[in-house]
Amino acid sequence: MSAAIECENKGLTTMIIEKGNVVNSIYNYPTHQTFFSSSLKLSIGDVPFITAKERPKRLDALVYYRTVAQLKNLNIKTFEEVLDVEKNEEGFCVITTKGEYKSTYVIVATGYYDNPNTLDVPGADLPHVHHYFKEAHPYYGLDVVIIGGKNSAIDAGIELAQAGANVTAVYRGADYSPSVKPWVLPSFESLVRHEVVQMHFESEVVEITENEVLIDKKGERFSVKADAIFAMIGYHPDFDFMRKLGIEIDDATGCPTFDEETMETNVPGLFIAGVIAAGNDANSIFIENGKFHGCQIANTLKK
């Protein structure tokens, strides 16, 4: 949306094609998610994002970005998936599930939330293994294992414990990730100290069955009951889609080939914006800094 607004401000005509609803990734966040960034840093298009508290919640963001889309009169095609982007002499032909569109330029800003990192262990594909956490209520009284030690895992652990789930957390690190929100961590640490949450550092899940998880903790193996497992181990861009478009990807870092000043990829006229520019390092680009990519692109197109 930010890229479209910046381009429109430069006199360019834009169309946003979204395979889900407006700001689909944010819609799929946990119901009670609180953002790390302030509302000021999440604002786009010179439209103020005013909230009662400094850090907005998911619902605040949904209302805000819908409002921006309306105020800016953005041309957004929702629930329409892009299948391919073909380069031709005039520019590009964008092929979707509903039709084809001609465009001089294309900006790919597909994010990473649709592509969870998965476990390479037996049982990882069982139906009670989840990569997204919505809310805790359904898990009251159940044995729940959380895999991971960063923000999504910590947030889920707190909410599940407060809802009456029996929570076991498994993290391969020796301590909590330094990226964990500092105003959230004390609550989780308190749950661990009071043995409401069973925390296992330097541990890895090695097998999942229908009702248990086998854990390896520094060579010692033991099982815990698990009615549900949340593998909150991160997400990654859709590398296959970018390669399909001709964008070169570094195998080691997952970073696409692009000009950092213009955001143009190795395919002339094809740009990227947002977190996909970070490759595997998803923690380096957020809404608050990725939103400026649109300005870089718009300035390039109007030179």
From TrEMBL:
<protein>
    <submittedName>
        <fullName>YpdA family putative bacillithiol disulfide reductase</fullName>
    </submittedName>
</protein>
<dbReference type="InterPro" id="IPR036188">
    <property type="entry name" value="FAD/NAD-bd_sf"/>
</dbReference>
<keyword id="KW-0560">Oxidoreductase</keyword>
<dbReference type="Pfam" id="PF13738">
    <property type="entry name" value="Pyr_redox_3"/>
</dbReference>
<dbReference type="InterPro" id="IPR023856">
    <property type="entry name" value="Bdr"/>
</dbReference>
<dbReference type="GO" id="GO:0016491">
    <property type="term" value="F:oxidoreductase activity"/>
</dbReference>
<dbReference type="InterPro" id="IPR051691">
    <property type="entry name" value="Metab_Enz_Cyan_OpOx_G3PDH"/>
</dbReference>
